[in-house]
Amino acid sequence: MYLVTGANGQLGNELRLLLKDNALYVDKDQLDITNAEAVKGFVSANRFDAIINCAAYTAVDKAEADEKLAGDINARGPENLAKTGIPLIHISTDYVFDGTNCRPYIETDAANPQSVYGRTKLAGEQAVLENASAAVIIRTAWLYSEFGNNFVKTMRRLGAEKAQLNVVFDQVGTPTYAADLAAAVVHILPRLRPGMKEIFHFSNEGICSWYDFAVEIMKLSGLDCRINPIESKDYPTPARRPFYSVLTKTKIKQTFNIEINHWKESLQSCLKHLS
Predict the structure, then answer these.
(1) Which terminus of the chain is less hemmed in, N or C, by CB atoms within 10 Å?
(2) How far is Cα 91 from Cα 121, in angstroms, rounded to an integer?
(3) Does pLDDT of 234 surpass 90?
(4) Nearest-angstrom CA–CA distance, 102 and 39
């Protein structure tokens, strides 16, 4: 039996579809991972083979004004889960990097987060590596799915309402379909080895800007909405975004024999489900 935390989010909902009755699904209402005693009591009352931590404070801009809560959820929560001694798969982010690279990031590149969200997620990674008996940390980027709020669903909604939209073209990365990430997590679960503590990168294959992503969403959705490319300086936000956050997936593909879809292929799959 597995424990999935943050189970009402995008990845948590995709894991429900794959793991079905093989996991217990909790959100903050059932288990407050920031409460060490609550976590200890919860896992001692149940027998779990592994924990998949999907819980996170992901409101990137709000985090700039709420560093304590972001730190509690993104750093102290994972630390509490790691200290249970149960093998852990923990989800992290491309925001641990500063986005100044001109080549895809590998797992050993120096982290240099530029936002509260990125700093607290990096602190969570470090806490997991220091305290877990066995852990796989998966950094991902630009997550979307049929569930919750995300860029794909927002673009489709706005594209149906407006004749044109402005989208930044100078932030480059790779979209990640949560269903593909969930499938990778489920594939890795039985391959967690005692003492294993590793960081891996996972996103879909290929590279695009948010502008390219939006154009493809409109095209595949059959929406006649013009996408105008703008620079990040024309769309200021409280938190600084990485300008370049392409992740190299070689390590996860070779270690676990995983095949990864191109982002356009996965976007098509998601839009079919949304339709």
Answers:
(1) C
(2) 9
(3) yes
(4) 41
H or E element, residue 269: helix 263-274
Q: Which of 236, 235, 214, 234 is nearest to 226 (CA)?
A: 214
Catalytic residue among 2, 25, 57, 117: 117
Q: Does 118 have pLDDT greater than 90?
A: yes
Beta carbons within 8 Å of 149's beta carbon, 6+ residues apart: none
Distances in Å between the alpha carbon of 158 and those of 137, 144, 173, 223, 224? 34, 16, 22, 10, 11
- 144 catalytically annotated: no
Report the C-alpha gap between 23 and 17 in whole angstroms.
Answer: 11
Which residues have CB under 8 Å from 126's CB, separation 6+? none
Task: Measure the CA–CA gap between 26 and 40, rounded to whole angstroms.
Answer: 15
> Could you say which DSSP state residue 249 is in?
-
Angle at 135 between CA 133 and CA 137, to 5 degrees: 155
Say which residue the tokens 């991902």 belong to.
Answer: 140
The reported pLDDT for the residue numbered 275 is 85
Please give the Cα distance from 11 to 22 (Å, whole number). 16
At 137-179, the pLDDT tens digits run 999 999 999 999 999 999 999 999 999 999 999 999 999 999 9
Q: What is the pTM of this model?
A: 0.97
Distance of CA 136 to the CA centre of its chain: 14
